[in-house]
Amino acid sequence: MGSSGRSSFGEGGRSGGSGSGARGAGGRSSSRRRGGDAAEEGGPPDDPVAVARGICLRALTGAPKTRQQLAELLARKEIPEDAAATVLDRLTEVGLIDDEAFAEAWVSSRQSGRGLARRALTSELRAKGVDGEVAAQAVAVVDDEDERASARELVRRRARSMQRLDQATATRRLMGMLARKGYSGGMAASVVREVLGEAADAELYPDAD
Description:
Blueprint: H1 25-40, H2 48-62, H3 67-76, H4 81-93, H5 99-114, H6 118-127, H7 132-139, H8 144-159, H9 167-180, H10 185-201
Helix pairs in contact: 2-4, 3-4, 5-7, 6-7, 8-9, 8-10, 9-10
Domain RecX second three-helical: 98-138
Domain RecX third three-helical: 146-191
Family: Belongs to the RecX family.
């Protein structure tokens, strides 16, 4: 963890506001708005590092975030890049930003809860700014058997609501559902055929092969 020589997030930001440069109603309004925003974010006016810290800590209270997610949030709040980098580096240093841990937790949650395949999991992680190598390492814990088991469970659950459909329509809809969750066409076809075959044995789809 970081230590000597760096005060946490650096309290030495710019101090005070300029007096004569803020003349006029528009200047005073803008100055008051920035000061109010800074106070709401937990930092003094004109201290972008403290403001950025407050923004990030509140965002992390709700749920873990990747570094990119927080960087995008700070950019939307118009935090200067150097102040944003200072805060993001410090939060990474103390472990409050950890893209590897985020990726591992995301894969565990989305694979077991939503039944997503590796391709969909990888796509989601990359969209959240997780490095490709980190994403691949996190997704590697899901193997072919895990994917097949998840796909079978998804199809079994969905097939119960399709008992009145003909086999061709049910097959098309079930394969579409698996495709949206990232499963390959080959695995989707195999799993749907297998589950509908079991359903046929249970007389849910008498015409299934």
